[in-house]
Amino acid sequence: MKNEIFKDTEQFKREYRRMVESEVGKGFDEADDHERFAALCKLVAFRARAIHVRNDNAIEAQRKKRVFYFSLEFLIGPLLENYLLNLGILDTVSEGLAEMGTSLEAVSSCEVDPGLGNGGLGRLAACFLDSMAHEGIAGYGNGMRYRYGLFRQVIKDGRQVEETDNWLAKGYPWEVRRPESAVPVTFGGEVVRHEEDGRYWFTLEGGETVNAVPYDIPVVGYGGNTVNKLRVWAAEPVEERFDLDAFNEGAYADASKFRTDVEAISTILYPNDAGEHGRILRLKQEYLFVAAGIGSIMRTFKREHTGADGTVDWAAFPEAVAIHTNDTHPAMCGAELLRVLVDEEGLDYDTAWGIVTRSISYTNHTVLPEALEKWPIDVFRRLLPRIYMWIEEIDRRYREDFMVEHGDRMDLLRDTAILWDGQVRMANLSIICSHSVNGVAKIHTDILEREVLKDFYELTPEKFNNKTNGISFRRFLGNANPSYSRLITDAIGDGWLDDASELKRLEAFSADPVFLDAMADSKRLNKERLARYVREQTGVELDCDSVFDVQVKRFHAYKRQLLNIFKVMDVYNRIVADPSYRPRPTSFIFSGKAAQSYTYAKEVIRLINSVADVVNNDPRANEMIKVAFIPNFSVGNAELIYPAAEISEQISTAGMEASGTSNMKLMANGAITLGTLDGANVEIAQLAGRENIEIFGLEVADVEGYKSRGDYFAWDEYNRDRDRLGRVVDELVDGTFARLSGDFSLIHDGLMHQNDADFVLKDFRPYVSAWEHLGEVYGDRRRWNRMALANTANSGFFSSDRTIREYAEDIWHV
């Protein structure tokens, strides 16, 4: 791609030196790596914002439709190298830094992972922003600026310990604070009814008003032609209330308590909601970023669509604005937009409701009923009284229309009404306020239509559609895997960075021994790179001649990290019991966080680390198998893990994983999927071919059958396989792996006394057999590399560029 930012390396060096001097107040040679990093980001962001201004002016002049993507998470990761690639200046900057006596690696290593997200939801949102910019869509992220990330995970005595993720400790050079664009947001208060000349209206009086202050982060599209922005909001006091008397009396914390209470709203991602204080804080977060985002949208729309006579062309709103809600966290977008249109802009209800339902769309990310947010009505009404009234009105009108059309179907009303059984049901609110509802993989959408949201699907099937998730190949292959990327580009050109479907051309090299051997060399480099990182972080020495078997994702029972570590325990037991048993040497690599209050998932992390402690210190086994748990999984270390992986563990209970995106990232980097037919694994199997992945275990129909019949019994599985499965289960409580911090009775009880809800025991033997088969295939390295190449070559479908084009055409009508 042509570099139009700097005409040559000399120009870059001149401008960079000036930026270091102006930002740091030192000469380049006196500045340290972090100061050099911050100045380089400022220089790139300066150039990017100039492009953004041109883009925005063109959007306004052309009346181009804007897409606002509301998500409580944006896991954007380190941006520097990604933006250098997208702007076409990666080589220029790298060469310039080398000539200046440093390196891009040294400078970029100073970048932290922004604590703006946690898992797949936030990573998907970040990929979508990248792809909207790549596709030339006027797309804007709307989220929260958390002072601290979810938490920094450390492992002590095998346990997950949560420490503060102070990602802003040294500032964040990509952001710009925009206090002039702050939006006031009110919590609590009293709704007052007014009436005059037969007309009545409501106002919200009193309450606590805070300022939502925006911080803008540039989003650079590949090619450097489009730069959008991610806007994240921080809560600040509208006016300073400092208690001078308290301060003078030595009560320093009390003196600034008001500011502290306000800023708590945006202090941390996902505050622990086990208690009422945490739940209220979470609800405040959700309303603040919704109200601030809608307020910002309204300002822009009115500026661009107000005529000379002062009349706003409200009919143009759905043609000018698309509001997309990512999961149920932004569910209040519909009610808030309705409130603004009626209460503040004076539109009648029917006109306003038409605008709402034509503008808003919703992506569902789960089949777990407990993940479809619900709020107690009394809590919701007390905190957000006017929004609750609007939700109540939406629900009342929905019920009236329902009774006219389906009056005898109370079962449908029970499952689709917004207010029911003392709760506000946010998924139902999202669906009723939206013109489009989509799942994120074909199997997920099928389950939504057939099971989770079947009543809504029966009533409005035209709303439902599928949009299989995607990833950014530029980041997770281009940036993350430079050696493999160079090999691909040398073979087929760099067009795949612009259009990932170009990777299909790699199939021409499936019988090319030189290319396949070069693939193996690249994988080896990546394994050595990851092994160094693992040694630094954990002290575990990985054998780079072993298979790197990887499962990295958020810890949850249905993702079945437990099944994976059961496999390791079984392999260890067999090694110890039978010296003639020689499995394929394997390094089992885990990473991921468990929610702070999710005790079961934290116990699985402790089990993995306890097994690692035993296995890695037993000379009978540690030459054949090693176990490593990489702490604090993030985008940064994920970019080391994905390129090194050879087996991609995607082993969720069939029908439970909406899509997954780690499966796509690992596939693109040439890992072989070992998985169930769940989420996007279904499409991976179709694209790569069943001969190039390893599928095992129960399918969705089997799981649903067991659940509906009630004829699955964990003890039957235990008794049927006492020698291996039974032994592994017993080891949870017999002290075998209790050396670090005790037994695992909680996990044992979940399996044996709560009947193994995730079918870990049922899938155990098929899973281990599938893993052993992959080990046999690995012995034929040429065959393995052909399989790996087939995965990379057929991974292009999973580009988020493709996903965004489908959203743009089918949902946003951009």
Description:
The strands form five sheets. Strands 1, 2, 5, 6, 9, 10, 11, 12, 16 and 17 form a ten-stranded mixed sheet that branches. The protein is built from 34 helices and 23 strands. A hairpin with a 2-residue loop joins strand 7 and strand 8. It has 814 residues and is an alpha/beta fold. The protein folds into three domains: 1-62 and 79-112, no CATH class; 63-78 and 113-469 and 805-812, Glycogen Phosphorylase B (Rossmann fold, 3-Layer(aba) Sandwich), CATH 3.40.50.2000; 473-707 and 763-798, Rossmann fold (3-Layer(aba) Sandwich), CATH 3.40.50. It starts with 8 loop residues before the first helix and ends with a helix. Helix 10 (276-304) crosses helix 12 (333-344), helix 23 runs parallel beside helix 24 and helix 23 packs across helix 32 (760-778). The mean pLDDT is 95. InterPro entries: Glycg_phsphrylas, Glyco_trans_35. It is an enzyme of class 2 (transferase). This is Alpha-1,4 glucan phosphorylase. Keywords: Allosteric enzyme, Carbohydrate metabolism, Glycosyltransferase, Pyridoxal phosphate, Transferase. It catalyses: [(1->4)-alpha-D-glucosyl](n) + phosphate = [(1->4)-alpha-D-glucosyl](n-1) + alpha-D-glucose 1-phosphate.
The low-confidence runs, each spanning 5 or more residues with pLDDT under 50, are none
End-to-end separation in angstroms reads 26 Å
Overall residue-averaged pLDDT value: 95
The number of distinct structural domains comes to 3
Helix fraction, binned, reads 40-55%
- Would you state the CATH class of the largest domain? Alpha Beta
User: What about the largest sheet?
Assistant: 10 strands, mixed
Query: Count of DSSP E strands?
Result: 23
Rg over alpha carbons: 27 Å
Shape summary:
globular
Oligomer: single chain
* CATH fold type of the largest domain: Rossmann fold
- Specify the CATH architecture of the largest domain: 3-Layer(aba) Sandwich
Structural class: alpha/beta
Share of residues in strands: 5-15%
Tally of helical runs: 34
